[in-house]
Amino acid sequence: MKFFVDTADVSDIRALADSGLLDGVTTNPSLIAKSGRKMAEVIAEICALTPGPVSAEVTATDAETMLREGQYLRGIAANVAVKVPLTEAGLKVCRALANDGTKVNVTLCFSAVQALLAAKAGAAFISPFVGRLDDIGQDGMQLIADTVHIYRNYGFATEVLVASVRHPVHVLQAAKLGAHVATMPPATIRALYKHPLTDRGLEAFLADWKKTGQSIL
Ligand code: G3P
Asked: Which of 8, 110, 128, 192 could be disulfide-bonded to 31 (CB atoms 3.0-4.6 Å)?
């Protein structure tokens, strides 16, 4: 399973890239706004920090402007994946960009038939938002199960990029279902390392080791 980080904070991305566990980055207009920086600058900087795909999202809603925005964004760096919304215009642009060899991430997916449309439109990634479905009392992870199932039925190459991930249990469930990618905020990636028994066990080992008076080096 690939791990992407869902942020436009360059210092967080740099630290996570150093961990060797980072496979890509996703951003959205809200995350760019939170960074307080110019989109083209921040995307270029992120693309230099990771060889993996970096999703940069269009903000137009009509197909013609969206296509021009997508062409501009993919020109920023070779590893930009253009993110488009799951709308009729978005999927039209997805097909046009995919035909030109651009990786497209289709975002704001909330149903399995929407995911089917994105795969038919040639998306490299589909982003179903599990947390936002859970927030309204629906089962976000069922959408992942259905999408993985449908894509396997037809051999679609589109990767299921689980988005709106809020906690480690989402990551566990997505991995069990065979989703290709999970994108998470930096704090959620860091939470994956944590277990109280690891901390307690390490503390005991180190206390016993101290009693020996030895040092390895
Ligand atoms: O980037 C899209 C997605 O991951 C947003 O997550 O927590 O705002 O629903 P969230």
From this structure: 8
